[in-house]
Batch of 2 targets.
Target 1
Amino acid sequence: MSHLLPKHCLFCLEKTQSHFDLCDHCIKSLTLNNHCCQRCASPLEASLFIARERNITLCGNCLSHHYHYDRVYSPFVYSEEMRYLIKKLKYQKKIHFAQALAKLFLQKIHDTNDFQLPQTIIPMPMHPKRLRQRGFNQALELSRFFASHYKLPLNYTSLIRSRYTDLQAGMNAIERQKNVQKAFLVKKPINYEHIALIDDVMTTGSTVNEAAKILKQSGIKKVDIWIIARAGLEN
Ligand SMILES: [Zn+2]
Ligand SMILES: [Zn+2]
């Protein structure tokens, strides 16, 4: 029973008293996404154009494109350290890493200006075929923790993945956009106006944008995206 053993940092394995499952030193080694676009959370160093529009700082992509989601919250950059933690969760089925990542997210998310709680939590769905391969959906594991923390309903049956899509690693932005077209379906009505869609990592945002489009078409007014770590295409 792991809770009877002394606690060890998930990253460096040193003993720790921290409530975060990571020692203070390793928490400090994670790169915060403090300077980011206030719509898509893209780290602004990576953006060519920055503009302030109605007091919001936007990246070049958000100035020139319309995205279906309202706001992406992603407190961390997908740095080498974050990649290690997320890959342990996804590919080595270390499900307790989901709780550690969710705790880190929750500690930082309230630092964001005008953060508003949604009315329900929806995990990014996984196609049944991929779910069989992986054995669990990491977005659902994160969502369980968020829903219980905020005492919000967790809805993992309404938004489904209706089409199997190829893994997107190695694809460019346009290929990713094509890959996820019509990949989602709202199977059962979601009786809320403001939802948060949960995922672990966001790269170009084509997947969350396609899901947000379907959610908006089903009548939802506000779709926030909660992501642990924001990556660029080079990741
Ligand atoms: Zn450590
Ligand atoms: Zn942006």
Target 2
Amino acid sequence: MSHENAIHEPLYKRINWVNSLFLILTPILVFIFLPLHLIYEGLDWRLIALFAFYSVATSLSITGGYHRLFSHRSYEARLPLKLFYLIFGAASLQGSALKWSCDHRRHHKHVDNEEDPYNIGRGFFYAHMGWIFFKDDPKYLKQGGADLKADKWVMLQDKYYFPILLVVAFLIPALFGLAIGQPWGGLLFGCLARVLITHHSTFFINSLCHMWGSQPYGDKTTARDSFILALLTYGEGYHNFHHRFQADYRNGIRWYHWDPTKWLIQVSSIFGLTKNLRKVSDFEILKARLLADEKKLSQFGYYNERFQEVRQKIEESQKKIAQFKARYLEAKADFNVHKDEAIRQMKIEIKIAKIEFEAALEQWQIMCNAQLAFARV
Ligand SMILES: [Zn+2]
Ligand SMILES: [Zn+2]
């Protein structure tokens, strides 16, 4: 069936009934049964713990596993972590890792156009969840993901996706509830309410992350950076950076950026569970940022020699830091150098170059913010 035929099929034939019923029924069931449960059974801390564990495990399996590992290959994971991602990824009820990753790769490749599965151009609701109500065009089911199709664990999860989710998402929470005398409570907290929250947290990445926030790395795509959305999405809210540098395992690049997915990957590397964490160089990131600023300034006719001078200062001091660092490492390795004095001198040179760099960068930011704030008035 061609794409055109699929598009011109009657609407009811294109609806994915299983997905649609689930997406519609979950909030209805939660909004009816959660208050009833709280009134008649009260709030049991063991059910809150179940909810918290399942929320964190399934959300990180999507962001750290489905997204940064399987879709982008931004690092490598050992089998125990990979299996954790595949098991709890299935329990997040967002499809198999294979299907999810193929859709996501298509999103990056065709972002904001017709081939983008969650194209924000079709509106908030469509990008958020509307697209899930419809069946995929069959042509996409066979396309791409050769590396994933060669991974037996990914393929096993794809094959046994429904049995895994029935056991992990439904049966285990119900049994846990049974063990504490509240089987329906187990299902409500460990599955329904948890799925409702984690679904919409992921959906925000496709909707609001393409609508709200800043675009420090360029406006070629609709993707935006937002700290608030990062809080709601386990760090995926730095989406403008992510669309610019999708191979980087981080989304929030500064240490203080809220990105629990990045922290999980980093901590796992200490225990040998992850390796080869891919990182774009600071040099490349800054280059992209300056270029984006330049473009914004040029649009308003503010980019002049003064900005060029500061930009030159930034680049020169950045090069100086790299050169001094290389010389410092060489000297440290060379036993003939009179270490103490030479190394002390080099450390001072590096420090001065860093101060020059930071001062130039701050000057750039102040000038840039002042000009653009003026332009917005
Ligand atoms: Zn996106
Ligand atoms: Zn991505």
